[in-house]
User: Which sequence fits this backbone?
């Protein structure tokens, strides 16, 4: 199938918005070739025009539209609409379905999955957005979780870490020079969050029960989960610095995974 036709349906009223995809990384992105050993990571800005926001809102489900209407701040509502609309647009391209026809199911912890997929072609996904950037992760036949955070230098790093991280992680963080503690904190947070989102349990499992590496200078890895030290044999953890002042992570089930980084500039 031609990659351009795969992304842009001739009858799609939003074709002028999706043409941007043809120029991603100076070439077209054949999403149908997402292999079982590949992970696609998309970084997309959420600041969009009113016209684009109107289109994205039009492809949301009624439940999603109602949720957007419950936000107290207009900016938060617009970012939610952009993130959900972009998810539908990208996911629809992967499975060759109209984005407004996609239906989602949710497990007991609220983790979403796409309804109506056959077991041999299941595409799993994860979404995270912070401030004006969004991170989308897609994998075939394996669990995936992503987390993205805007780095705030004025947070109480040690105060937060003492309550949410393991004793070992807190000690390592406290020993770092003050100038390095903030970045290490966000590395710890995003790596834990990505893994927990991949597992589908979220923060209910407890951040302190997952120990991870804390420095961008060392390989991202899971040290322990619930006291067991063999989690790194079954998961791949990836450190991400997708935009200035943002840090993130991706956790993918299995080893020997190839990551492909993509961006979509909605200009």
Assistant:
């Amino acid at each position: 199938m031609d990659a351009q036709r795969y992304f842009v349906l001739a009858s799609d009223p939003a074709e002028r918005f999706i043409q941007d995809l043809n120029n991603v990384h100076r070439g077209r992105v054949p999403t149908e070739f997402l292999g079982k050993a590949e992970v696609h990571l998309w970084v997309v800005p959420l600041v969009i025009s009113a016209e684009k926001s109107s289109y994205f809102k039009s492809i949301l489900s009624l439940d999603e539209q109602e949720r957007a209407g419950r936000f107290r701040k207009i900016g938060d509502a617009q970012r939610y609409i952009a993130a959900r609309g972009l998810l539908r647009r990208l996911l629809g391209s992967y499975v060759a379905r109209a984005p407004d026809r996609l239906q989602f199911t949710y497990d007991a912890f609220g983790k979403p999955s796409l309804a109506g997929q056959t077991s041999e072609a299941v595409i799993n996904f994860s979404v995270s957005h912070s401030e004006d950037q969004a991170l989308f992760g897609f994998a075939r036949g394996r669990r995936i979780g992503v987390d993205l955070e805007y780095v705030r230098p004025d947070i109480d790093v040690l105060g937060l870490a003492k309550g949410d991280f393991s004793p070992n992680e807190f000690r390592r963080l406290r020993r770092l020079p003050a100038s390095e503690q903030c970045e290490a904190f966000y590395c710890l947070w995003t790596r834990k969050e990505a893994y927990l989102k991949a597992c589908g349990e979220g923060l209910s499992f407890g951040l302190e029960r997952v120990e991870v590496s804390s420095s961008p200078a060392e390989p991202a890895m899971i040290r322990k989960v619930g006291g067991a030290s063999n989690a790194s044999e079954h998961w791949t953890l990836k450190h991400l610095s997708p935009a200035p002042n943002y840090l993130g992570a991706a956790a993918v089930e299995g080893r020997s995974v190839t990551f492909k980084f993509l961006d979509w500039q909605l200009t």
